[in-house]
Amino acid sequence: MVTKVNDLPAIFQIDIPLPDNPLKNLNCYVLQSGKEALIIDTGFNRPECEKALENGIKELGIEYPSLFLTHLHSDHTGLVHKFKDCPIYMGKIDYDYLVASINGNTWLKTDQKFEQEGFLKEYIKILQNTNPARSFAPNGMFKAIPLKDGDTIQIGDCVLQTILVPGHTPGQMCLYIPQQKILFTADHILFDITPNITSWIGIENSLGDYIKSLNKIKQIPIQIAFPAHRKNDSNIYTRIEQIIQHHKMRLEDTIYILSQKQPLTAYKIASFLKWSMRGKCWEEFPISQRWFAVGETIAHLDYLIAIHVVERLEGNINHYRLLCSKTEAKNKIAL
User: Fold this and answer.
1) What CA–CA distance (Å, rounded) separates 27 from 16?
2) pTM for this predicted structure
3) How far apart are CA 133 and CA 72, in angstroms?
């Protein structure tokens, strides 16, 4: 389904279904100016996404678009092979990370890391074949025009500016149209769900990076925000504050859990935290959702380590403990 969401510049939204995924859909945006068009993100590398994307492009009469990939996740890059003859833009940081994931051993290191954080090896083996981040990823590597913070893309008469917002991934990018104060938020800011912030190989404090990126966006004048998933039904600046408060509460909950019983593994801490899973207990969670939850828990622990209130006890299986009282630890949180 194609919906026109803005007149000047002309922006359309192609609804890309994400079957069996809590995200439900990807909002693939198409900006048209003159005879040129820019497509923003693609959907998973699976038939349902491909059909929706192809139908949308056909309906809009686009023949030779440019493609911008906001970040490395498979629900945004999976169908990049469909654009092999088109200019493809992507932030250099995430592009390099994706290259390492496809051609190197990043996934192996990630599996080893999660096992060290208490995730059962048998669960990791299951996810190696069922995790959509792997099974619906791009068909091999592709060439891209690498972009850095503040670069511009011109489509017809429209100039879009890149904004680097690390956190959700090491190098996610938003696109901003200064003249109309339009921001494509990608997964940096979502409005009815909270973006997953996980721990990445080679990144010390992804939650700290994410909070800085949120505060960066707060300084930009924005009249219209187009998120990558679901709907935008609230003020973007209000939403930023809500997300920051969510992470503050999650950090405080993590401190409370450690104050009750420690040392604990990241997996065990995650099992005590509250997650939006429709009343299901931890052991009823799908393994893939436990993987996301543990990754986010590690990211919060990394933040608490960075502000010197939690210590990681490294071993075959890592454990965590507080370095100060619960009250002192909470008082050091400054988001």
Assistant:
1) 6
2) 0.96
3) 10
